[in-house]
Amino acid sequence: MKILDIIELGLVIAGLVLILAGWAQSRFRFIAERRKGRYFYWGTSALGILFFAFGTGQLWPNGVMTTLIFSAIVVVTAYLTTPYLKIGDRIYASNPENRAPDPPVEER
């Protein structure tokens, strides 16, 4: 196994772990504050998708296709199960409870 193959395998595994961490946040909400949870979800998902795309070995067509597929999965998951799909001041969600505005953040 060449060093490049090992690096690509590591990127694929790291990408999957990060995508799963984002999914776990959407499912279990271990970060209770919505804003921080939203940043965690999108940050881990985006970084995971990027790592996975570079780990496929070829950016065209493999990296581009996996990026499109995983991005669609992440956006649909955010819409169906979380209040994390926020564009501007509007929250897009399938559940009316998730469409409610973010609660005010307490100052410390």
Protein architecture, described:
With 108 residues, the chain is mainly alpha-helical. The protein has one domain. It is built from 3 helices and 2 strands. The protein has a two-stranded antiparallel ribbon with strand order 1-2. The protein is elongated, with a radius of gyration of 16 Å. The model has no long low-confidence stretch (mean pLDDT 95).
Question: Quick gist of this model?
Answer:
The protein is 66% helix and 6% strand. By secondary structure, the protein is mainly alpha-helical.
What are the SSEs and their pairings?
Elements: H1 3-28, H2 34-55, H3 59-81, E1 85-87, E2 90-92
Antiparallel strand pairs: 1-2
Helix pairs in contact: 1-2, 1-3, 2-3
Instruction: Indicate the radius of gyration in whole angstroms.
Output: 16 Å
Shape: elongated
Topology as a string of helices (H) and strands (E)? HHHEE
* Strands, total number: 2
What would you call the structural class? mainly alpha
Low-confidence stretches: none
Question: What share of residues are in beta strands?
Answer: 5-15%
Spatial order of the strands forming the largest sheet: 1-2
Number of domains as seen in the coordinates: 1
Termini Cα gap: 52 Å
Number of helices: 3
Helix content: 55-70%
* Largest sheet composition: 2 strands, antiparallel
Give the rounded overall mean pLDDT: 95
